[in-house]
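Structure (tokenized):
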């Protein structure tokens, strides 16, 4: 089931459905719904998160549009760019 913004929630998908979406390249990034961080599907940090907090995106653009930031572990270049673009 997709949210209004097209985000897929892991809690709403069976393992079989998720595997199928990944194989069809309909999902390319995962994210943490509470922390609002997105990253690659093979990221070790992402693999440790709870199922109820995990969401999936079709693209980086989709993740950014809904307010997520890049993972500092698996997307170092994008994360550095994000840090430089924010007023910190």
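Design, position by position:
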């Amino acid at each position: 089931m997709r949210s209004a913004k097209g985000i897929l929630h892991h809690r709403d998908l069976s393992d079989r459905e998720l595997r199928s979406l990944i194989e069809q390249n309909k999902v390319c990034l995962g994210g943490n719904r509470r922390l609002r961080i997105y990253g690659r599907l093979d990221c070790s940090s992402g693999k440790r998160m709870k199922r109820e907090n995990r969401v999936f995106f079709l693209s980086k653009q989709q993740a950014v549009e809904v307010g997520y930031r890049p993972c500092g572990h698996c997307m170092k270049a994008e994360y550095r760019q994000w840090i430089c673009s924010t007023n910190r």
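Reviewer-requested clarification: The chain has one domain: 8-85. The longest strand covers residues 29-32.
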